[in-house]
Automatic annotation (TrEMBL):
InterPro entries membership: RNaseH_sf, Transposase-MT_Hybrid
A GO MF term: nucleic acid binding
Organism: Heligmosomoides polygyrus
UniProt-recorded name of the protein: DDE_3 domain-containing protein
Recorded superkingdom: Eukaryota
PANTHER family: MARINER MOS1 TRANSPOSASE-LIKE PROTEIN, PROTEIN GVQW3
Gene3D superfamilies, per database record: Ribonuclease H-like superfamily/Ribonuclease H
């Protein structure tokens, strides 16, 4: 499987990188957890990455591709 690098589109409120699949999952994962130190936060991020199944990452890539096809003005 090959990938094509696509440049980041001009800033748009409706396609913010912060809304992407992983960041939404990370935000939900961190709710109610103590993240005051960088070491603790790093540990939680590593836990999240290591506990997600392969399909989670595939879905995120598919959703990103769909957003790119919609374009920033859709």
């Amino acid at each position: 499987m090959g990938y094509i690098h696509m440049p980041q589109p001009p800033y748009s409120l409706d396609i913010s990188p912060c809304d992407y699949h992983y960041y939404l999952s990370l935000k939900d994962f961190l709710v109610g957890r103590d993240t005051r130190t960088q070491a603790v936060l790093d540990n939680y991020v590593e836990q999240l990455i290591n506990t997600r199944p392969k399909q989670f990452w595939k879905d995120g890539i598919r959703k990103l591709a769909e957003r790119w096809q919609q374009g920033p003005c859709s």
